[in-house]
């Protein structure tokens, strides 16, 4: 009975953020591009009845991700103590799965802040703090509750994993050589840092989604959402390079007198982990001076 109920989760990114016609369009595209394959993998996972604490590792195995993890000299994930892990949002679901897989191998007192539609798998339901991007009061109140939950995790010396941009990296233009990035980061993360006096561990994912995804992004939100399952399916069997930098102690943030500059600092520290450092230097130096 338990497996049957878990089997009924909604495998879709069609949420109340878009109208009913858009939701139906998203569901149709998902069905045509990746939903069936992903649902089959999830059903196989349920039949294996594995311990929930191994969910992310099991997901990495099912999706056949080849995780290539590198730690900058002196960097590490501490086994105890409050910590905020930030990352750029290169791909979508693959980012959260990969990052949580790494963290869960070291400690279990973590939670990830992510889109509410991902908080359906029973195995990790309590590990996900949902963010609702719907444009209504209910969503706003839910997000306030989520912020308080994140604060509580950190006050209890746990770990919060967050993608501060709140959006997946896209291209400024559709030129093939243009590199995607996830735009300006929201000050939500800086407020969390200051409120809980937490250190920050920056991490960086190499790569980006397909050109088709970036074209869809230019058309609109509905088209972009409709391809998220397709992009996850594309990552099956792929190599994912994840770089961790050095922990930024809270003392460094105390020297900065505003949230905007704190946000810019952690973003710059994150993007500086990109092996293509020449690309980042001018762009993010300019960003810091704004």
Task: Write a structural description.
It is a single chain. The model is unreliable at 1-5 and 278-282 (pLDDT under 50). The protein has helices spanning 2-6, 20-33, 35-48, 55-62, 93-104, 137-155, 188-196, 211-219, 221-226, 228-234, 250-254, 259-271, 277-289; strands at 66-71, 83-87, 110-115, 128-131, 159-162, 200-205, 239-244. By secondary structure, the chain is an alpha/beta fold. The protein has one domain: Glycerol-3-phosphate (1)-acyltransferase.
Topology:
Layout: H1 2-6, H2 20-33, H3 35-48, H4 55-62, E1 66-71, E2 83-87, H5 93-104, E3 110-115, E4 128-131, H6 137-155, E5 159-162, H7 188-196, E6 200-205, H8 211-219, H9 221-226, H10 228-234, E7 239-244, H11 250-254, H12 259-271, H13 277-289
Parallel strand pairs: 1-7, 2-5, 2-6, 3-4, 3-5
Antiparallel strand pairs: 6-7
Helix pairs in contact: 4-5, 6-7, 7-12, 12-13
């Amino acid at each position: 009975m338990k497996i049957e109920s878990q089997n009924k989760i909604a495998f879709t990114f069609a949420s109340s953020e878009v109208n009913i016609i858009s939701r139906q369009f998203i569901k149709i595209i998902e069905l045509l591009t990746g939903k069936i394959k992903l649902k089959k993998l999830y059903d196989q996972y349920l039949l294996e009845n594995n311990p929930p604490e191994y969910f992310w590792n099991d997901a990495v195995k099912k999706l056949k991700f080849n995780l290539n993890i590198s730690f900058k000299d002196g960097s590490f994930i501490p086994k105890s103590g409050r910590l905020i892990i930030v990352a750029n949002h290169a791909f979508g679901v693959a980012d959260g799965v990969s990052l949580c897989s790494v963290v869960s191998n070291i400690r279990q007192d973590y939670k990830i802040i992510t889109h509410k539609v991902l908080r359906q798998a029973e195995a990790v339901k309590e590990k996900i703090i949902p963010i609702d991007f719907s444009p209504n009061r209910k969503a706003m109140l839910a997000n306030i509750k989520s912020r308080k939950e994140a604060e509580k995790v950190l006050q209890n010396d746990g770990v919060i994993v967050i993608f501060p941009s709140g959006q997946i990296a896209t291209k400024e233009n559709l030129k093939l050589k243009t590199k995607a990035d996830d735009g300006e980061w929201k000050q939500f993360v800086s407020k969390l840092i200051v409120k809980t006096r937490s250190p920050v561990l920056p991490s960086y994912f190499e790569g980006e989604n397909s050109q088709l995804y970036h074209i869809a992004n230019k058309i609109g939100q509905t088209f972009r959402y409709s391809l998220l399952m397709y992009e996850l399916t594309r990552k099956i069997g792929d190599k994912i390079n994840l770089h961790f930098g050095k922990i930024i102690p809270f003392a460094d943030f105390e020297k900065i007198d505003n949230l905007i500059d704190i946000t810019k600092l952690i973003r710059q520290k994150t993007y500086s982990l990109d092996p293509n450092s020449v690309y980042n230097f001018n762009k993010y130096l300019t960003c810091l001076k704004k």
